[in-house]
Amino acid sequence: MEDVCKLKWRKTSLSDLEMLQDCACHNEFFANNYGAVNSVLYEKKFNSHIALENGWVFEKYFDDGKTIYSFPHKIDSDKSGIKNALEMMCESERNGDGYLTFQNITADEKDMLAELFPDAKIISTPESGDYIYLTKNLAGLEGKKYSKKRNHIHQFQNKHSDYTFEPLNESNFDSVREVEEKWLEENADFARTTGTLADLEAEREIIFYALENFEAFSNTCGMTGGLLYISGEPVAFCIASILSGRVTDVHFEKCLSPYARDGGYAIINNEFSKTVQTEFINREEDLGVEGLRKAKLSYYPEQVLEKYMVEIN
Asked: Which one, of 267, 256, 255, 236, lies nearest residue 155 by Cα?
């Protein structure tokens, strides 16, 4: 009997950026969880690991005491060996109770897993679906359906006529940090009551890590973003990167509450979208938060990318 090939796992790091970006671009990913930047950034929160075998990229992370796996991908996008790659992964990683859990699986990937493992348990996870927009729609806000957005922006412009927008660069990193600290302070009490404060604090550290390593992320993955100022004071920011050749992924978007009520999110969304060069913008998932879902739907996504959890016994 042949020995099972055991995958050699290690923590995902900045040194993996170029390889992961090549994989994302060759595979033309739209799902944000397969983006190089997210794979590296969220090692800080989920202790993400990576393994490479015969040109295949395997990823796993740890959440609430569980080991979670991503769907494997070939760096050069050749899918002809996917059956062997999945079988190797399952034989290598199947745990003591016999289960292997995949999350953030797209519809096509779910179908492949179901075909290979007919007894797999498949669960739809709409809270994880990515909102994909045409960049020209977010930048132009043209047509009747966007009239409320245009009105919201005009109201903001009338109230804050001295607002300015700046592309993210080394000179305004401190402004990002300032907004993030104030935003966290605004949301801390509610987060304590819901048990999510640790998540928000981890997100702050991830944002700061992105800024500390901005040059690496920018050179390899086109990291970009923007700052919104009112009377010279920073009130909102966003951070994004190139997910693949056709898609820009917005990782973070924060606006201080007094200006959010006035339309600050609409402004920074619109201003940043005007700078994006890709055809599509991925504004990531709604996390099952009703208000966030409504806000994302109000921009009329071209697609909400369905995702699933697949459990293999």
From this structure: 267
Tell me if 180 sits within 8 A of 204, measured CB to CB. Answer: yes
* pLDDT, average across residues 196-209: 97
* Rounded Cα distance, 286 and 307, in Å: 12
* Residue 192 one-letter amino acid: R
Residues 106-132: tens digit of each pLDDT: 999 999 999 999 999 999 999 999 999
Strand, coil or helix: what is 120? coil
306: left (phi over 0), alpha (psi -120 to 50) or beta: beta
Cα separation, 77 vs 75, whole angstroms: 5
Q: Give residue-wise pLDDT tens across range 283-293.
A: 999 999 999 99
CA-wise closest residue to 298 among 131, 126, 130: 131
Q: How far is it, in rounded angstroms, from Cα 32 to Cα 118?
A: 27
Q: Kindly give, in sequence order, each residue whose CB lies less than 8 Å from that of residue 31, ignoring residues fewer than 6 positions away.
A: 104, 106, 130, 305, 307
d(CA 61, CA 40): 11
Return the number of other C-beta atoms located less than 10 Å from residue 73's C-beta. 24
pLDDT of res. 235: 98
- CA gap 77, 134 in Å, rounded: 24
CA dihedral 25, 26, 31, 35 (to 10 degrees): -50
pTM of this prediction?
0.95
